[in-house]
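hey m, so remember when u said the tokens were messed up on ur end? i reran from scratch. heres the input so u can diff it against urs
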Amino acid sequence: MLPRLDSIRPARTKLQVTQKGLASLVGVSTSMINQIESGRCSPSYETARRIFEALASLEASTAGHKAGELCNHDIVKLRPDNTMHAAISKMRHHSISQIPVFEGKVPVGVITEDGIMRHIADSEKLNLRSALVREAMDAPPPIVDHETPAHALAPLIRLTKCILVSRRTAIIGIMTASDTLKIVE
């Protein structure tokens, strides 16, 4: 016996999968998934079975992954006394949109493209070669333990854009939205 059809949408959203993504896995149209979730159509038993199998497979693929496995261990960092020009250069060089700011080994903030743009908009005179990262940085990103299950990371990433990963008291990696896509792969 299959689960109830009205459990498809909550299961799909919990797994952070779009209707298009689920449709692709099942071999049906995005419109079909939309109609099933909204109750406008009832799928055949075979289609419903494939939907629930795809959801179960996605859930199983995320169950074993941990933050420490998925994070990028090569953290690009800045200090609060670096210039915004240096921050922009690093962002461009590494094709990233945020960089954690550290004082020694302690994260004290994060500088983002948005934070730099906000600083530019709010400043009357601006010299990015002398303006410091501390003037535009936001609060530090959240820190999760390396054993944190992967399924708990996507909602947090959506809110904060990046997460630092620690083992004991040391920061060992960083995760961004692109890193969470590894879960789906």
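this time it looks ok to me. The chain has a mean pLDDT of 88. if urs says something different then somethings off w ur setup not the seq
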